[in-house]
Amino acid sequence: MSLNILIQKWYKDNLRALPWRENKNPYSIWLSEIILQQTQVVQGLPYYEKFIKKYPEVECLANAKEEEVLKLWQGLGYYSRARNLHYAAKQIVDQYTGIFPNNYKELLNLKGVGDYTASAIASIAFGEAVPTVDGNVLRVISRVFDVDTPVDTNKGKNEIKNLMFEILDKNNPGDFNQAVMELGAKICKPKNPDCIACPIQVKCLAYDKQNFLERPVKSKKVKVESLFIDFLYLYNSKGFVLQQRDDKGIWKKLFELPSSFSKIDFFDFKHLENIRNLYSKLDNEIFYVKSVKHKLTHRNLNIRFFNCAIEEDAHVSSFKLAKTKAVPKPIEDFMAKLLTRRG
C-alpha cells in the first residue's frame, strides 16, 4: 500500500472532531489556522469558539474595533497575530468585497498569511493541490525520508516541500495535508514518537536506521534573552493606574501597569520610586507582592509585582473599566484576583 493511502486511511480512522473541519468554509479555516499558530489545539479551541461566536462572518471581524479583538485574544500571546487577523479581515471586505481569495497566490496578499497558512486554506477550502509545511510536517517528512538537511534553512524547507508535493494526493490535497499534520501531532511527536502505532513505520527510513530522534536536523540554536520587569500597582479606592503601551515591543498597544524593563537584575528600588513619583504626590511605601516567570519563544521574563497606595484624587482607571482592556498574560493573572475580589 502506498505512503499516500496509508496516511489517509489512518487519518480517516483517527481524525479529531474539530469545528473548522465540519465544512470547507475558508473563514473558519483561516481563523483556526491563525489561532493555532504556535498554539496547541487544546489551548486554541476555546479561543476559536469565542471568536466564531462573536464574529461569525468576516464582515463582523472587519467592523470590530482593534481593542475588542485584542481583548478577545488576551492570553494567547503573539498579539501581532490578532492585529494581522483584524487587518486581513478588512482587506477581504475592502479589496475582495467580502469574498475570500480562492487560491494560494491571492491568499498570500492577506496580512499575516504566509506560505503555510495560504497552502492550508487553498488546499482544504478550495482543493488546490499545494502542500502545507508546518512544524509537524517538517518532522514527519524529515523522518520518513531521513532528510539530513537542516529544516531551519530555506534549502531544508524547500526539500521538505518538494517531497510533500511528490506524495500529495492531488485529488484530495486538503485531507492529505491535514492527515500528515495530524500524524505529527498525535503519533510522530518530537521526543516520544509512538512508532509502534505509526501507520507508515514500514516506510520510515529514520525508523529503519533508528535515528528518528535526530530528525529533523536544525542548524541554529534559539538564543534566549533574559529580561527583568518590575510592575508597580498604584491604587486608591476608585481604581488603579493602567497605561497603554506604545506601538513597539512584544506587547505593543496593550495595557499594563507602570513598569520598568531591564536586561540586568535590578539592584535597588529607585526605579520604582521614580515611577511612583510620576503618578503620585504621596511618598507612600512600596511593598513587594509576588514574583513570576513568563517564557516566550526568545525571552525569559523575570517579573516582580509591587504595590503602593496613592491619593484619592489621582487619575486612575476604574476597576470596571480595567476589565475591558487587553493586557499581557502576566498582568491578566495578577489582575484576575484583584478584580474578582472587587466584583
Describe the overall structure:
The chain contains 15 helices and 8 strands. It is globular. With 343 residues, it is an alpha+beta fold. A 4-stranded mixed β-sheet has the order 5-1-7-6. A two-stranded antiparallel sheet has the order 2-8. A two-stranded antiparallel ribbon has the order 3-4. The protein has 2 domains: 3-214, Hypothetical protein, domain 2 (Endonuclease III, domain 1); 225-342, Nucleoside Triphosphate Pyrophosphohydrolase (Alpha-Beta Complex), CATH 3.90.79. It has helices at 3-14, 26-36, 41-54, 58-63, 66-73, 80-95, 104-107, 115-126, 135-144, 154-167, 173-186, 205-209, 270-279, 319-322, 329-342, and strands spanning 225-235, 239-240, 243-244, 255-256, 259-262, 287-295, 299-309, 317-318. The N and C termini lie far apart (62 Å).
